[in-house]
Write a structure and sequence with these properties.
single chain, about 550 residues, alpha+beta, 7-stranded mixed beta barrel, 19 helices, 10 strands, globular
């Protein structure tokens, strides 16, 4: 009997200790740097081991028909052999918008692809990964822009899709060197945010000529149908509650901007009136306005903190601004980013940098090849005024002085740690050396092997000069706003012989077709770095 009671006591103690252990693990393991199992899925140590080039063999019955129907978004069944491991019943389709259209228009076949392991076989995955992209490096002669941009984001603590280089084969025959990219769906969310993660969207417009206020994250009204460009682009299943939370967040974000603008207006008013003495009651006008300003600024900051993950958002914009991504949230189109929402708070996440580093020209009425302008692109106002006012997630956050100061602090850390230590140069050169033999043998590449080497050097030159310019902007030696540039304040960094199109441009497709594929096609309705005179002279 005594023995039985002792046994019961031991069991109770063990149960209690186990419970305490579980609570401790949940509360403190992340702080101790011990990640949950979902943070280290097996696919990360397999396909996304980026220290080597992997092999993916697409086994498909009628590849020619698949390529001919590239404009369709329907998935085709195939088998996928990944580093010698076979997966049956996999879905594959061509991906991309402008890139897909241009590749097709010029009679080329090097498309980017989406691969979905569970499309035809529910529950299937690649060691926990349900979906990935195969990026063709369109308009990227260096093959590095996406890879290095995600590396920069990860360095700054911004959750980014995993990626690695793969040699793609079709039915056992070489097709080309691609970048495999983790799609940002359930597996990504589990890995980055845990199983109790929030919701993720990829806002994108249907038609560029529309206003697309939702893509810009501007509050419209309380009707979910007004945010179709967000909700139809949800990357996970969403509910009505999810929609309500996001709309409320956008509403508060817009309100915070109005408070900040009011504060700025009152500040200017107080400066004007301070020289006129005191009010009729003997209270300083300046003091009264300053008190009001302090209250409004505090309200703005508090409201933002309730709906925006501010620190995380600022970290994203440090790298986003550095990359001069004119095809991103602060660019002409305002898309190519991910939006994560959890418990009513939002933050941006990175996506698609093949047209970053001032190489975006599609649809721009006055595309420029001006390396001095873009190397010295201002960090205070990283977009023209009319765009800045329409991008509240940057504009309204940075209008809070504390946030802007933090932006400067983090930019300093980024430049000092990633560039001035040599980390960027080492990673770039190691990666370029690793992929160079595969680029040499790439049968579908958009550039020559020589242009790849020039592209790598040009990309490195742009980034190093950009880091030098940002350092100067942080110290006040280089103009950090469009207003300072126009006023001639400070001295921009000289860019020497840097030629932006060396990193990749639309005109490469034309030249490739004309000279490498022996086809003569007439370009229609496209904008390039090359002027029409230069192009036809070259032709």
């Amino acid at each position: 009997m005594l023995h039985s009671k002792r046994f019961e006591i031991v069991c109770i103690v063990l149960v209690v200790l186990t419970g305490i252990g579980i609570v401790f693990a949940a509360l403190f393991w992340p702080k101790l740097g011990i990640a949950p199992a979902s943070a280290n899925p097996e696919y990360m140590t397999r396909l996304f081991d980026d220290s080597r080039v992997h092999t993916i063999n697409i086994q498909i019955d009628d590849w020619d028909t698949f390529i001919e129907e590239a404009s369709e978004d329907a998935y085709t069944v195939c088998s996928l052999e990944v580093d010698g491991e076979n997966f049956e019943g996999v879905g594959i389709r061509v991906k991309g918008n402008n890139s897909r259209a241009l590749v097709k228009d010029y009679g080329l076949e090097r498309y980017s692809f989406k691969v979905e392991f569970d499309h035809f076989k529910k529950g299937s995955s690649y060691h926990g990964l349900d979906k990935l992209s195969l990026d063709s490096s369109f308009q990227d002669n260096s093959y590095l822009k996406n890879y290095m941009s995600y590396d920069m984001m990860e360095y700054m603590g911004v959750p980014s899709p995993a990626c690695s280089y793969v040699q793609v084969e079709v039915n056992g025959q070489p097709w080309g060197l691609y970048l495999a990219v983790e799609e940002t769906e359930e597996a990504f969310l589990d890995r980055q945010f845990g199983i109790d993660h929030g919701v993720i969207y990829k806002p994108d417009y249907k038609y560029l000529e529309d206003e697309n206020a939702d893509v810009a994250l501007r509050y419209i009204d309380d009707n979910p149908e007004s945010y179709d460009n967000i909700f139809r682009k949800a990357l996970v299943d969403i509910t009505d509650d999810d929609k309500t939370r996001l709309i409320e967040a956008l509403k508060v974000l817009s309100l915070a901007g109005q408070l900040s603008e009011k504060s700025t207006s009152e500040s200017l008013s107080s400066e004007s009136s301070s020289s006129e003495g005191t009010s009729s009651e003997g209270t300083s006008s300046e003091g009264s306005a300053s008190k009001s300003l302090s209250i409004e600024s505090q309200n703005s900051e508090n409201s933002l903190e309730s709906v925006v993950m501010v620190e995380e958002t600022i970290r994203y914009f440090v790298v986003q601004t550095f990359t001069v991504n004119l095809d991103g949230y602060l660019g002409y189109t305002g898309h190519n980013y991910l939006l994560y929402e959890e418990d009513g708070k939002i933050r941006p996440l990175p996506w698609d940098y093949n047209l970053a580093y001032a190489t975006y020209t599609l649809g721009m009425p006055n595309a420029e090849n001006d390396p001095v302008k873009y190397v010295n692109y201002p960090i205070d106002t990283p977009a023209p005024g009319y765009i800045m006012m329409e991008r509240p997630l940057y504009h309204n956050v940075m209008m809070v002085p504390e946030n802007f100061n933090r932006y400067y602090e983090l930019f300093d850390e980024f430049i000092a740690g990633y560039f001035e230590t040599g980390l960027f140069e080492n990673r770039l050169r190691e990666t370029a050396d690793m992929i160079a033999p595969y680029v040499e043998e790439d049968p579908t590449k958009f550039c020559t092997s020589e242009e790849f080497l020039v592209g790598v050097d040009s990309f490195a030159q742009f980034c190093n000069l950009r880091a030098e310019s940002v350092r100067g902007q942080l110290s006040g030696q280089v103009p950090s706003s469009f207003a300072e540039q126009e006023a001639g304040i400070g001295t921009p960094v000289d860019t020497g012989d840097l030629w932006l199109p060396d990193m990749g441009e639309v005109a490469d497709l034309i030249i490739l077709v004309i000279f490498d594929r022996n086809r003569i096609l007439k370009p229609v309705g496209l904008t390039f770095y090359l002027s029409s005179t230069d192009f036809f002279a070259f032709r």
